[in-house]
Structures are given as structure tokens and as C-alpha cells.
Design brief:
- The protein is mostly beta strands.
- The protein has a domain of about 80 residues: Jelly Rolls (Sandwich), CATH 2.60.120.
- The chain is about 5% helix and about 35% strand.
- It is built from 1 helix and 11 strands.
- A 6-stranded antiparallel β-sheet has the order 1-2-3-10-5-8, with no helix packed on it. It has a 3-stranded antiparallel β-sheet with strand order 7-6-9, with no helix packed on it. Strands 4-11 form a two-stranded antiparallel sheet.
- Strand 1 and strand 2 form a beta hairpin.
- The protein is globular.
- It starts with 13 loop residues before the first helix and ends in a 7-residue tail after the last strand.
- About 15% of the residues have low confidence.
Length: about 150
């Protein structure tokens, strides 16, 4: 901003002007606590859907995945690409027959329909936070019989 100029204050966002009781007990920014995630077993991994039942409509889906060391088979997402953030651990991301070493802070971009699997290679679980442009996780996952990835 140039010296002597002024900037008009922006209008407050409508949700910010309502009484907090009108926000149905939620904060202005919805937060899903990691401590409340319900992990289910999928082939070679445990997975949680943090948005399920949270009443948050994003038009997309998120999955938090914990992968223990050991082999696993690939899967595909037929309806959208997957973007996965490596939160913890070390591993190998397989897309088709191509392996790539991954670790904390890495971001994986897997094209729609590409057979892939991420395998933990260290003593601790590999933890991924996976994002999909398609809102229905169940419809967007197809497990494959092989090949086994290590």
C-alpha cells in the first residue's frame, strides 16, 4: 500500500457475524480430530475416512492410511486421481512396475486408473493422507489381485 492511502475494511463473512450458537456448536473452521478416527482393515493397510459422518460436504474425499511393513497388492481409483501426502515413515510407492522411494513431506500424484501400491520399508508404519476429487471413497476403489509389492 502507498503512503497516505487507505484501504476499506472488507465486509465480514456472514458466518462470522452470527452468534456462535447459530453455528450448531461448531467452530467457524470445522476440525476433524485425528484422535477420533475409526480405522478399518483393507488389504495391506488400515484406513480411516475422516469426513464420513462429520457433516462436511467438500465434494471430495480424504483417507488417512496406516501401512505396516510387509507386502501388499495394488489397487486403482477408477473415478479420480489420488494425491497422497506422506505424513510419517518411509516406503516405496509403486505405480505399475515403477518403484519410487518416499518419505515424510513427499507428495505423491497418482493418475486416475493407474494400478499402484505404497509399501512401508521402515520399522514404523507409513502414514499417508490421501485426497480424491471424487466424493465416494467406496465407489472409487478397486482392489487388484496382484502383483504382490514389497
Amino acid at each position: 500500500m502507498r503512503p497516505g492511502s487507505t484501504r476499506a475494511s472488507p465486509e465480514p463473512h456472514p458466518s462470522r457475524t452470527r452468534a456462535s450458537s447459530e453455528l450448531t456448536g461448531r467452530s467457524a473452521v470445522p476440525v476433524v480430530r485425528g484422535s477420533g478416527l475409526d480405522f478399518v482393515r483393507l488389504p495391506g493397510r488400515r484406513s480411516a475416512d475422516p469426513l464420513r459422518g462429520a457433516g462436511i460436504d467438500t465434494g471430495a474425499s480424504v483417507r488417512v492410511v496406516r501401512i505396516a511393513s510387509g507386502p501388499r497388492t495394488p489397487h486403482v481409483h477408477p473415478l479420480s486421481a489420488e494425491v497422497a501426502y506422506v505424513a510419517e515413515g518411509a516406503g516405496t510407492a509403486w505405480e505399475g512396475d515403477q518403484p519410487t522411494a518416499v518419505g515424510p513431506g513427499d507428495l505423491l500424484v497418482i493418475p486416475r486408473g493407474a494400478p499402484h501400491a505404497t509399501v512401508a520399508t521402515g520399522p514404523a508404519d507409513l502414514v499417508l493422507v490421501c485426497f480424491f476429487a471424487h466424493p465416494d471413497l467406496a465407489a472409487n476403489l478397486r482392489e487388484l489381485a496382484g502383483p504382490l509389492r514389497e
